[in-house]
Write a structure and sequence with these properties.
InterPro entries: AAA+_ATPase (IPR003593), ABC_AA/LPS_Transport (IPR051120), ABC_transporter-like_ATP-bd (IPR003439), P-loop_NTPase (IPR027417). Keywords: ATP-binding, Nucleotide-binding, Transport. This is ABC transporter ATP-binding protein. By secondary structure, the protein is α/β, with parallel strands linked by helices. The chain has ten helices and ten strands. The protein has a six-stranded mixed β-sheet with strand order 6-7-8-3-9-10, with helices on both faces. A hairpin with a 2-residue loop joins strand 4 and strand 5. Helix 3 crosses helix 5, helix 3 packs parallel to helix 6 and helix 5 runs antiparallel to helix 6. The radius of gyration is 18 Å and the shape is globular. The chain starts with a strand and ends with a helix. Bound molecules: adenosine-5'-diphosphate (ADP) and magnesium ion. Magnesium ion (MG) binds next to helix 1.
Length: about 250
C-alpha cells in the first residue's frame, strides 16, 4: 500500500475526445511532483479526476492506498486532500482571514479524526491553523481586506493559504505560479519546500519551466491525454523530446 495519492489507468473523455487516456501517476509524501505539458493535453482534466471535481470513465484514484474514485470532492477533502484552481476561487465577499478560516474549519470533525476516535480540534485550533497559514503566505498585513480587493498574485496566495489551513496530507496545485511577482514566487517556493519537508505530498500543474526545475523532485510530461515522460526533474527537463512535447522552441 502506497502513501500519498495514486492514479491508475485513469480515463476521462468529453464527447468523442479522450482528454485523459489511460494515465498512471504517483504523488508520494515528502516530495514535489510536477505535471507539465502544453495547453489542451489533459492536465486539468486529470487534476480534476484526482481532486474529485470530475469522475473518471475508467481507472482508479487511491489516497493512502484507499480507493477514493467514487468519492466526491468534499469527502476527499475530509480525508486530507486539498486543491487550488487554475482560475482562482475564493469567496469575494469575505475577508482574507475569513476565507482562510473556511479552510481551517474543513479540518474539524474530519473522517480520519473520527475513525481514530480523536476529538474535533475546536475553535482554538482552527484559529491557530488560520493564523499559521496567513503568516506563512505573508497575508497578515491584508487579513482584514475583502478578498475581492486583492491583486491577482495575492489572491493566488490566499487560495493556497485556505488550502493549507485544512492541514491536508496531499495538496494539488493548478498553476500556483501564475500571476505571482518575483517575491511572491520566492515565497511560494519556500513554503512548498517547507510543506514537503513536513511530509506533505504535493502535485504541481505548472507552465513555468523555471519554477518546475527549481522545485520538482519528479516530473511527468503529458501530451494528447497520455504520459509521455516521467522521471527525476533534472533528467526529464533536459530531454529534448520533452521540450518538443512541451511546445518550447
Ligand atoms: P490542459 O489543462 O492540459 O490545458 P484540459 O484538461 O483543460 O487541458 O483539456 C484537455 C482537453 O479536453 C481539451 O481538448 C479540452 O478542450 C477538453 N476539455 C476539457 N474540459 C472539457 C469540458 N468540460 N467539456 C468538453 N471538453 C473539455
Ligand atoms: Mg489546465
Amino acid at each position: 500500500m502506497s502513501a500519498g495519492l495514486t492514479a491508475r489507468g485513469v480515463v476521462r473523455g468529453f464527447g468523442g475526445i479522450r482528454a485523459v487516456d489511460g494515465v498512471d501517476l504517483a504523488v508520494p509524501p515528502g516530495r514535489i511532483t510536477a505535471l507539465v505539458g502544453p495547453n489542451g493535453v489533459g492536465k486539468s482534466t486529470l487534476f480534476d479526476c484526482l481532486a474529485g471535481a470530475t469522475r473518471p470513465d475508467a481507472g482508479r484514484v487511491l489516497l493512502a492506498g484507499r480507493d477514493i474514485t467514487a468519492l466526491p470532492d468534499h469527502a476527499r477533502a475530509r480525508l486530507g486532500l486539498a486543491r487550488t484552481f487554475q482560475q482562482v476561487a475564493v469567496f469575494p465577499g469575505l475577508t482574507v482571514e475569513q476565507n482562510v478560516r473556511v479552510g481551517a474549519e474543513q479540518r474539524r470533525g474530519g473522517t480520519a479524526r473520527a475513525l481514530l476516535g480523536l476529538p474535533a480540534p475546536g475553535r482554538a485550533a482552527a484559529r491557530a491553523a488560520t493564523d499559521r497559514a496567513l503568516r506563512l503566505l505573508d497575508l497578515d498585513p491584508v487579513r482584514d481586506w475583502p478578498a475581492d480587493r486583492l491583486p491577482p498574485g495575492t489572491l493566488r496566495l490566499l487560495e493556497l493559504a485556505r488550502a493549507l489551513a485544512a492541514a491536508p496530507r496531499v495538496l494539488l496545485l493548478d498553476e500556483p505560479g501564475a500571476g505571482l511577482d518575483l517575491a511572491q514566487t520566492a515565497r511560494l517556493a519556500a513554503v512548498l519546500r517547507a510543506l514537503t519537508a513536513e511530509g506533505m505530498a504535493l502535485l504541481l500543474v505548472e507552465h513555468d519551466v523555471e519554477l518546475v526545475a527549481r522545485l520538482a523532485d519528479t516530473v511527468y510530461v503529458m501530451a494528447a491525454g497520455r504520459m509521455v515522460a516521467r522521471g527525476p526533474a533534472r533528467e526529464v527537463l533536459a530531454d529534448r523530446r520533452v521540450a518538443a512535447a512541451w511546445g518550447e522552441p
